[in-house]
Amino acid sequence: MSRRRHSDENDGGQPHKRRRTSEPIEIEDRLESLICRVGEKSTSSLESNLEGLAGVLEADLPNYKNKILRILCTVARLLPEKLTVYSTLVGLLNARNYNFGGEFVESMIRQLKETLKLNLYNEALYLVRFLSDLVNCHVIAAPSMVAMFENFVSVVQEEDGPQVRCDWYVYAVLSSLPWVGKELYEKKDVEMERILNQIESYLKRRQKIHVPMLQVWTAEKPHPQEEYLDCLFAQVQKMKKDRWQERHILRPYIAFDSVLCEALQHNLPPFTPPPHSEDAVYPMPKVVFRMFDYTDAPEGPVMPGSHSVERFVIEENLHYIIKSHWRERKTCAAQLLSYPGKNKIPLNYHIVEVIFGELFQLPQPPHIDVMYTTLLIELCKLQPGSLPQVLAQATEMMYTRLDTMNTTCIDRFLNWFSHHLSNFQFRWSWDDWSDCLTQDLDKPKPKFVREVLEKSMRLSYHQRIVDIVPANFSALIPTNPIFIYKYMDESSSSLPGYPVTIAISNAIINRSSNDEILTILKDVPNPNQEDDDDEGDSFNPLKIDVFLQTLLHMAAKSFSHSFSALAKFHEVLKILTDSDEGKLHILRVVYEAWRNHPQMISVLIDKMIRTQIVDCAAVANWIFSPDMAHDFTRFYVWEILHSTVRKMNKHVQKIQKELETAKEKLEKQHSRRKDSGDEEEDKNSDEEDGPLEEQIERLQEKVESAQSEQKNLFLVIFQRFIMMLTEHLVRCETGGVDFNTPWYKNCIERLQQIFLMHHQTIQQYMVTLENLLFTAELDHHILTVYRQFCALQM
Questions:
Q1: Beta-ladder partners of 213
Q2: Where is the composition biased (Acidic residues) (predicted)?
Q3: How far apart are CA 591 and CA 586, in angstroms?
């Protein structure tokens, strides 16, 4: 009641107060909206919008200066695709209010220091680029920007810093020059020449052994896959040769030149790059992905050459758009297609190349793989007359170059392609790929087609795949995913354990208890045991065979039935797989029964790891065992292995987080006690601390145990890789044949894949790996992979 009267009152008391507190918030929200939306589609020109916004912000500066500063610093960091729009806005504000310009520059430098401290190197890069563009807007004096660049480049003289640190500072300078190179060269040509010479000298002496590990294709033709700094330096050198001319950056400040040139400029405060620290995580080096050149886009505008700075600018802007909008595929697709200056370039080719460049980026794409699939589908919907043709052309090019394509990228390619086909009724001109039918099945092309059809079947069903593919492709069509039950009928009655399968089957139907089932299994003879051996508890593979084959056969109807069966008889399975041999054998049985259904194998093993029927090391040992030699290069096998490693890593992270939380809780209790100074509370706190300290001790032990298990898993994986590859190399050398077979390429690149996909975890165990496995005596082909990996964070 009082609430209603309170809202109905018009006596000027309370409602006034409420309006006063909400008014500033409304104005702040309005300012944020105006700043964030400037440069978007509008009936007015960008220049008039900027002038109008500068007037609004100038009027609000007395009351909302801090808010305006904060918003402008944030958009400079987070919306790099509108860099020149915001630098022009800051230029106009600086021309009207010199003090505000000075405060903005100081805020940007503070923010730059903060981002470097927090390892936010991408954001720091955008801030450096923004500061450099402020030189064009007459906010920052060119000499002070050059001085900052000189300090950046001085990092290459450091003796103890890692190469990736020097790389970042060099890249920060080079990648700003397309925006500001002309202005700086006009004002400070001698100093700029010296900076570029220092960079050239550094690029000549830096190590590049990591490059092969990051290349999508090993072949240099038709398009070289260049190291990113080498490529950018070549682009900057060409731009310098062309007198710093560039035609693709939107430069709204040119329209305001008469106003901006009258403004007073600010000097940047001296900026020294923070010293290297052990916990600094610098960006990894990259290789520039190239798929198209001007000959691939025959109609319409010409595609800029790979060493023209326009190519760099266009690609950077498209990457920015994806980075800003990747969560909203429709917005992202619309923004990409409305790229400014799209009529001057073959935009569809650039978009497709940039998207695949991100998808194939090693070690990991910037965003989840499925995002790129949905984005390409959205682009095809928005441009049905042109983009699908470019995408088909790209797919064809990648297919023809499969022989030299990195295995990790082939995985991503087949995942994307099968998902894409499932959204377009699996329509594809399969006859164009009939060349794969005359090749050995272990060659990349037939292997790729087979894996695509296998993956497509997961997104459809077997008969559909049979219907869509031409009859002559029958050798590559996946087998019907049916269960193989070796105790199926009376013809199997001669198999050992056959009578027990009938008893087990009846017991499951009659809902017998776990104990009753274990009693039935006691009658199963042990093929590993001699007649006079009394050790009844030794590992019995036949027990696992009989029980698991029968159980999975009865639950073969669906994933859910199989999961329920594993859950119901979890206790029996745990007892049967008590030993390491038991864990290995249960995996063999799952493979034998479901070898026509790789997806079922994957999900059952996933479930058995989660329910601790098998452990991660057992899965790794099974994958590298002779039983799996036939399927060793199949996609699903590596899907299982990576999933297993990820589970192990997540398990360790989870316990570490629990330990950190418990320590923080204890820390808070101690600080609360210190603050209160109450003796009575001291006694109570001691009682409180007891259980918490015990919990921390228990968690500490769990973390150590989990880390030991994790280290053991990687040791198992790498040891098996080394054994298999060494055997292959020795066999080839003895037989006088070429070692570089499709199997070898797949295996060595799978080793690279393990290093790349789990690099953050593996780095913790580098000393152990170097001492035990990757020693100097190892064959140089295998050791090279390890050295390439080490070079990624050098």
A1: none
A2: 677-693
A3: 9
